[in-house]
UniProtKB/TrEMBL annotation:
GO terms for molecular function: double-stranded DNA endonuclease activity. InterPro entries: DUF4351, Rpn/YhgA-like_nuclease, Transposase_31. This is Putative transposase/invertase (TIGR01784 family). Residues 13-205 form the Transposase (putative) YhgA-like domain. Residues 267-328 form the DUF4351 domain. It holds the Pfam family DUF4351. One of its GO terms (biological process) is DNA recombination.
Amino acid sequence: MSSVQDSDIIHHPNDGYFKAVFSSPAHSADFFQRHLPAPAAAVIDWTSLENVSATYVSDDIQVSHSDLVFSARTGDREVLLYLIFEHQTTVDRAMPLRLLHYSLRLLTKHHKESGLPLPVVIPFVLHQGPDTWNVSTCLEDLFDLPEPLQAAFQPFLPRFQHGLLDLSLYDPASEEQQSAQRVVLQLMKMARQKRVLEFFDWLARETTLRLTDALLHTSLMYALSTDTTLDLQQLIRKLSTNPRMQKQAMSFPERLLLQGREEGREEGREEGYSLGVLKTCLRLATRKWGAVPKLLEARIGALDYTQLERLSEDLLDLGTLNDLTDWLDKAGA
């Protein structure tokens, strides 16, 4: 898995999960081999795939912090190939124009540093929905010329198209092999449709799937972050028909709590952190609402001393766990 922190997933669930999974060249190589057109996928040396996003972030080329850029080579030819991986949660008719601009900046940078020939650039959009992607992926369709003008101006129009996987139409059964990729894409799809519990029903039936601890940890974190009304124990109970995966998931709560607190320290929150005030806040919350979801415990554990003091005073006025979540959101925890 990538170096993306749990806090990124907590605060920006969709983008954070996307980057946590697909920043890994292994996961992205698996994705592209399955979803690029077969002729293109067949000529790329996937062992050469390298995440070079940081280079373009520093040069302010990326349009969005959720974009990923990879370099690769093709077979026995020294041809540099850039794959732009654009994570999109809304339908954007101007996406071909946006990606053309992005591609031109990549090409301009390459030309400035290395000259000619130019590298191939393949832009690809992973659309998370929930709406269906119902607009063209071709730049020339944005001109919308009347019939008499098409023939006259066609030679002067730029031809450009981006790849697309629309998760609103994704069917995991269409995958030829059982892979962790199916889990990631199905969770991203169903999370946007607010069907997280249904996803875990589906996952429980996938008894032949094998997930690494890291991927399961990240997926559970995403599920709990995208739907804060859920408790980890609900998700674990959903896996009861898949004992192996359920056992794997049961080791998650303590790690999550400890990790959340550690991230709170690492992110520069004040060191005047008081365990006594933390225990008071957790005790008050438990008395008020019963069991407090582990994710919320982790977020409370990441607060600094001043925030904990304020929370201990405000807890009496908070009506529901959703109010507590809103309080933590405003506190930036």
